[in-house]
Design goal:
Layout: H1 6-15, H2 21-40, H3 53-65, H4 70-89, H5 116-123, H6 130-145, H7 149-154, E1 160-161, E2 166-170, E3 176-180, H8 183-195, H9 218-231, H10 240-255, H11 258-265, H12 270-273, H13 275-291
Antiparallel strand pairs: 1-2, 2-3
Helix pairs in contact: 1-2, 6-8, 6-10, 10-13
Length: 299
């Protein structure tokens, strides 16, 4: 029996394409799920290398019957296509069985956001504890610069230029972009940097560190953001990506400049950014309904 190609493929993604840890975790989960499905059907550990289109269609149909949505299935197909592109490059297969197969469509869900007042309530909190000073800086930077979770945890001390109010960010596909850092975020980060040495290991280059002194883990950031919001009386489950969504939505509401928002978010395709225009139109519709004298039907 041959070994599964999943681990060598993930090593390729990590070392050649330099994908983030969270992205690698998603690839691993998708491919191991397909591998488990094949094993349950009597396949060997390397069965994923011998898939045909009929098997891929059966797998997607099975997942859909269990209630899995279209976006998740699209991602799983994308993971499988990426695996087979690598297998083709290595000369291990002759075709890509996931090409041309589409997942069932599901209505696109608008991202959850916080309005400006909610964010002010979230951030306006006196802090003197070391970890709370760090958390304030993280949350301010999330919202100020529209960062992804993986981008925030990868920020190093040398990446932020306080004098120029700019931050160098390494995003998806190891692409680097520069984003502005607002006044309040700079103040919060400066406060954190003044006390950071009390927590960070001597040779640690990460801007944000855990209580153990090393680079903070994404899971810890998610937990701390949710805990912070709960303690501030938030009635919703607040997570790091909600802060990024809020950044994009508020910026587009104020400027209407979709291209600028695309650049700041680091989206390769403007179609990804266009989801925020739906949020903007939703806001405009609410204003219209409340303000226009003939918007509401007579009772």
């Amino acid at each position: 029996m041959a070994d599964s190609p999943i681990e060598p493929f993930l090593a390729h993604l990590a070392h050649e394409r330099r994908l983030a840890e969270l992205t690698l975790d998603a690839y691993r989960a998708d491919l191991e799920r397909i591998g488990a499905w094949l094993t349950d059907a009597g396949g060997e550990p390397d069965a994923i290398i011998r898939l045909d289109q009929q098997q891929v269609r059966r797998y997607i149909a099975w997942r859909h019957r269990t209630g899995v949505g279209g976006r998740t299935l699209q991602r799983e197909l994308s993971s499988l296509r990426s695996l087979y592109r690598w297998l083709l490059r290595e000369g291990l297969v002759l075709n890509n069985p996931a090409v041309g197969i589409r997942a069932p469509k599901t209505p696109r869900k608008l991202p959850a956001t916080l309005d400006a007042d909610q964010l002010c309530n979230l951030l306006d909190r006196p802090v003197d504890d070391l970890l709370l000073i760090r958390d304030t800086a993280m949350i301010e930077l999330f919202y100020s610069s529209g960062l992804r979770l993986a981008e925030l945890v990868s920020v190093n001390l040398g990446d932020i230029d306080m004098a120029d109010a700019m931050l160098s960010v390494t995003g998806k596909g190891a692409k680097t972009r520069r984003v502005p850092v607002g006044t309040q975020a700079r103040e919060a980060v400066s406060h954190w940097m003044r006390v950071r040495a009390n927590l960070a290991a001597a040779d640690e280059q990460a801007l944000f560190v855990s209580s153990r002194g090393g680079r903070i883990h994404p899971r810890t950031v998610r937990t701390r953001v949710a805990q912070w919001a709960q303690e501030q009386g938030a009635t919703r489950n607040v997570h790091p990506h909600m802060l990024r969504h809020s950044f994009a939505s508020h910026l587009l509401e104020s400027s209407g400049d979709l291209r600028a928002v695309q650049e700041l978010l680091g989206h390769a395709d403007i179609g990804t950014t266009q989801i925020y225009t739906h949020l903007d139109f939703q806001h405009l519709a609410q204003v219209y309904d409340q303000a226009h004298p003939r918007a509401k039907r007579k009772r």
